[in-house]
Amino acid sequence: MAGATRHNQSSVELFAIYEVSKILSSSLDLQQTLREVLRLLSYHLQMQRGRICLLTDDSTLRLIAALGMSQEEMERGQYRAGEGIVGRIVKTGMPAVVPNLADEPLFLNRTGGRNDIAEVVISLVGVPIKAAGECIGVLTIDRISDEGYAGNFDSDVRLLTMVANLIGQTVRLHRTVAEERRFMMREKFRLQKEVSKVDYQVDNVVCSSKRMQEVLAQVHRVAPFRSTVLIRGESGTGKELIARAIHMLSSRKEQPFIRINCAALPESLLESELFGHERGAFTGANRDHKGRFELATGGTLFLDEIGDISPSFQAKLLRVLQEQEFERVGGTRTIKTDVRIITATNVNLEEAVAQGRFRADLYYRINVVTIFLPPLRERSDDIPLLANHFVQKFNRENQLNVALHDDALDVLKKCPWPGNVRELENCIERAATLCRDGVIWDLDLSCQMNLCYSSTLWHHRTVTPTAGASVPGIPGYAAPPGMPMPALPQAAPARAGCSTGGVPGCSAATGGSCAAAPAALPPNAVPAGNPVPPAQPMRPQHPQPPAGGAPAYSDATPSADALNEAAVGELLGMRIGNGGPDEPEFTTPRDRLLWAMERTGWVQAKAGRLLGLTTRQVSYALRKYNIEIKRF
Ligand SMILES: Nc1ncnc2c1ncn2[C@@H]1O[C@H](COP(=O)(O)OP(=O)(O)OP(=O)(O)O)[C@@H](O)[C@H]1O
Q1: By the 8 A CB rule, do 63 and 38 touch?
Q2: Cβ–ligand 1 contact at 425 (below 6 Å)
Q3: How far does the centroid of ligand 1 lie from the alpha carbon of residue 589, in Å?
Q4: 233 Cβ inside 6 Å of ligand 1
Q5: In this structure, how many other beta carbons lie within 10 angstroms of the beta carbon of residue 628?
Q6: What is the mean pLDDT of residues 251-274?
Q7: Which of 108, 370, 388, 519 has the CB geometry, 3.0–4.6 Å to 84, for a possible disulfide?
Q8: 206 touches ligand 1 (CB under 6 Å)
Q9: d(CA 610, CA 599)
Q10: Atom of ligand 1 nearest to the CA of 235
Q11: Would the CB of 627 count as within 6 Å of ligand 1?
Q12: Coil, helix or strand for 572?
């Protein structure tokens, strides 16, 4: 009978140990875990008032888990080594059994948690908690009875020692993890400080603003991984440049970087361009053709303007991105791909998803890491560096030594740059081409001659809302999240010499001083209040334009249309030479535009490239010259 009881007792103890080990490995909250252990001992083994004290860094024993104690009582549970029963256990590293606490001189009742000591017999069993051979705390339990505990203290000590060992291992593990975590946090903080000091450099990307430094830091972080990157930002902010930078900083840099503009091709062509086609797949497919996915094998595929692809093509693209395989058009063989995908768009994708124009599953697939490129107007600190970079580029390409005058730089810094860096580049190239004495003066800038085609485009947008416009106040512009468009300045009344009527490109660039446009200047004159600094070259005399030319120097204020006409003409006219050696002579800008459209199969993006214009500028010019777009 006694054997059976002992057997039962052993089974209960074994079960308790098993449960304790489970609890100890179940949570990261040490205090909570230890309280659970005490609850289990109390429930299964009638070991009441369990307490666990742990040694802290200042060698004090602190009560960190207890059953049936208020927070206040717990806070009183602090002992020095050697003090009281608990202090003695830590000091000696040996278990202690006190059959009746009322008779124990070492008993301090510091917590005040045993006020029933006069009414019942309280026995205490305490064992050291050890880890790696060191005593790091104490586990105690009370046995409460009316006439003294009749059970076996030895078996209590044995069981509690096992539990204390498990606790010791757990505490050690928690402390190691906490220490490592503290170390990692310190390291993270240190690295963050280092990173903020680092001047990130990426080849070809010119910038000094904090916003762009953050972008470059992101570029460095994402480059080594294969994750899909989505680059967002307005047109001309440098999305392709950043995509190339990511490729060049990755281990794929020796492999191809292949770009495709998804908006420039109709769906059938886009499909064959991306996936390739087999001979005979369609009329004119005379031989097998590798698509860009195949050409980019091992490298990076940059899908520009991804926000513009049709819903049916979105489904096809999704399949490749998910399964990393595809078939050529007209083919049956499944081809595996190994390409890193970088996408870019200036479309508000969230709005497109909400309106059902863009698939949510594709959105999530491409939106793994997103890099937002701020518009130039939000990082005007970059303008001086960029402007000088483009002047140097012009000089290298033309073996010239043109300089940029500070006055011109001042005007550039005030411009809102709706066309961003691309527009700045065009502006500099144009001024460098036109300037007469090897210096770009403020008056050489197109906005100062009422020939700023950006302001013309802005003007067009503000008077001719485009379908799908989604930015309040700026029809035709859709700003993605985090890419707020500038508030339109109040239209200033048209002034002599300024026909843009206060459109942003002009009024901001001139600081509202369009009245001082060149028309008011006599030959050799310098505008009032704008003396030439001695160190700077003498301001040149601007000749009058030929009769019937651009309205820049006309005394009369031309109508907005006349300005647009002139500006677009200027735009197209200025680019003569980009079309290559076989470009014929044109008598009107309209003819040149028609020639480019015909030559590129009426693909506006391609015509734009031929003419050195953006797709939007081509689209504007087509409307301007009433050219009906041919569709095939
Ligand atoms: N930080 C920069 N440093 C030097 N050049 C830049 C920078 N940002 C942009 N550019 C130049 O501006 C022009 C436009 O850049 P890019 O084509 O990368 O812009 P994008 O955002 O991809 O334009 P889009 O949306 O129209 O395709 C390019 O000639 C590019 O080299």
Answers
A1: no
A2: yes
A3: 26
A4: yes
A5: 6
A6: 91
A7: 108
A8: yes
A9: 9
A10: 25
A11: no
A12: helix
Residues above pLDDT 90, as percent of the chain: 42
- Residue 242 pLDDT level (bands cut at 50, 70, 90): very high
pLDDT (tens digit, 9 = 90+) per residue, 307-355?
999 999 999 999 999 999 999 999 889 999 999 999 999 999 999 999 8
Mean pLDDT score, 233-248 = 95
Taking 70 as the threshold, does the pLDDT of residue 302 lie above it? yes
467-472, long-range: CB < 8 A, 24+ apart = 470/348, 470/351
Give strand pairing partners of 325: 336
| Residue 326 C-alpha from the chain's centroid | 30
Question: 205 in ligand 1 pocket by Cβ < 6 Å?
Answer: yes
pLDDT for 507: 37
Residue 614: pLDDT band by 50, 70, 90 thresholds?
A: confident
The preferred substitution site among 215, 230, 237, 376 for testing ligand 1, maximizing ligand atoms within 8 Å of CB, is 237
Q: Which residues pair with residue 605 across a beta bridge? A: none
Ordered structural domains, the chain, with CATH:
2-177 (3.30.450.40), 210-372 (3.40.50.300), 575-632 (1.10.10.60)
Ligand 1 lined by 237 (C-beta under 6 Å): yes
Nearest in space to 472 (alpha carbons), one of 494, 482, 487, 461:
487
Does the beta carbon of 241 sit less than 6 angstroms from any atom of ligand 1? yes
Residue 488 has pLDDT above 70, yes or no: no
What average pLDDT does the structure give for the chain?
77
Nearest-atom index, ligand 1, CA of 240: 18
ipTM metric: 0.98
- Residue type for position 436: R
pLDDT at 463: 46
Using CB atoms within 10 Å of the CB of residue 83, give its burial: 0 to 12 exposed, 13 to 18 middle, 19+ buried: middle
How much helix, strand and coil, in percent to the nearest 5, is found in the chain? 45, 15, 40
Chain centroid offset of residue 573 CA:
40
Backbone angles phi, psi at 93, to 5 degrees: 70, 20
Ligand 1, atom 15: closest residue by C-alpha? 238
392: amino acid identity, one letter:
Q
